[in-house]
Amino acid sequence: MDEIKWLEVTVNTVPEQLDQVCATLAAAGMDSLVIEDEQDFLHFLEQNRQYWDYVDQELLDRMKGVTRVKFYVTDDEDGRKQLEQFTRGLDQEYAAVPLTENDWAYSWQKYYKPLEIGSRLYVVPQWMRDEPIPAGRIPFYLNPGLTFGTGSHASTQLCLEGVEEHTVPGRDVLDLGCGSGILSIAALCLGAGSAVAVDIDPKAVDVAYENAAFNSIGKDRYTVRAGNVLSDAALARELAQRSYHLVLANIVADVIIPLAPQVPNLLEEDGVFLCSGIIDTRTHEVESALQKAGLTVTKKREKHGWAALEATK
Q1: d(CA 58, CA 45)
Q2: Mean predicted confidence (pLDDT) in 6-34
Q3: Distance CA 201, CA 208 (A)
Q4: Biggest alpha carbon distance in the chain?
Q5: Is the pLDDT of residue 10 over 70?
Q6: Residue 60 region by backbone torsions, left for phi larger than 0, else alpha for psi between -120 and 50, else beta
Q7: 222-226 and 194-199: which strand pairing?
């Protein structure tokens, strides 16, 4: 069967004309629109932290001031007739770029390169595991898939820097909101004794275990659970039956704040709580919540408008 070919059609506009562009396209029969708007994009990222790691600084820069609408038609006679029909009433110019079906599934891989974190970590997409590792670096292999991240987002990088600094060989780690497992698996690669990881998305369990296996880490050292420690009292009690040297939460401010009261019961006396995913304008809210919970903020890291905090008992 011949490969289906597509045209990606992009209509550049401005925020005040966005609704009119969408209405014009919808009235012409196009009901599958992709809207790219900087403000909506930033709000989406804050509310959907599982997608952060697909967003590098290059993309954030490209989104600055952007308001555009995209849609897709087949790259053939029928598709071009549709394109003419959909764009007939538009005042804005548009661009149509050929896109093959293969692009949908695999083109995202070309955007991922090995990533140096701190002074030791080296995050490597698993399909590049045969590439040489820089001297002095500890490789950490990861398959981002299409749901969870790779560590390219500033928030994850900040937390990984803290993981590198505070992982103690033989000591235990708890990763709350683990996603791909990147933070807890990195700690295990750095010598942590064992790690427990939790995420509200059940798909995270298989993804994290798969990434652990890429790094020769088995279930004897790594346990991944699906659940919500804020709403599941039994899960919260189970996790608190032991304490951890390092507790990680790369989530968002709206989750870290209600989570803060649970943290002291999870930490060893000399343990460290690392939380990230905090938009810098909300750092003071999180600091206040940690202090009310009896924690002392000892360090703040910042990068590209995001903040990470370290706290101790």
Answers
A1: 15
A2: 84
A3: 11
A4: 69
A5: yes
A6: alpha
A7: parallel
Token pair for 157: 């990088």
What is the DSSP-derived secondary structure letter of residue 280?
A: G
User: Strands 34-37 and 115-117: what pairing?
Assistant: unpaired
* Rounded distance between C-alpha atoms, residue 171 and residue 158, angstroms: 21
φ and ψ at residue 31, rounded to 5 degrees? -110, 10
Contact yes or no for 139/122 (Cβ under 8 A): yes
pLDDT at site 93? 86
User: What letter does residue 295 receive in the DSSP assignment?
Assistant: -
Give the model's pLDDT for residue 226. Answer: 96
Q: How many CB atoms lie within 10 A of CB 127?
A: 11
CA distances from 107 to 102, 112, 129 (A): 7, 10, 19
Q: Is the dihedral of CA 229, 234, 237, 239 positive or negative?
A: negative
Crossing angle (nearest 10°) for helices 182-189 and 154-166: 30
- Which helix (H) or strand (E) element contains residue 263? helix 263-266
Q: Which two tokens stand for residue 19?
A: 């609704």
Q: Position of tokens 């275990």?
A: 209
**Is 290 in contact with 310 (CB distance < 8 Å)?**
no
Query: Which residues are 246's β-sheet partners?
Result: 173, 272
Least confident of 21-35, 72-86, 93-107, 224-238: 93-107
Q: Which residues pair with 250 in a beta bridge?
A: 276
State the CB neighbour count (10 A cutoff) for residue 228: 14
Asked if residue 128 has pLDDT above 80, the reply is yes
Q: Tokens for 108?
A: 């995202």
pLDDT at 113 over 80: no
What is the predicted pLDDT for the residue at 73?
85
Retrieve residue 276's tokens. 């990230």
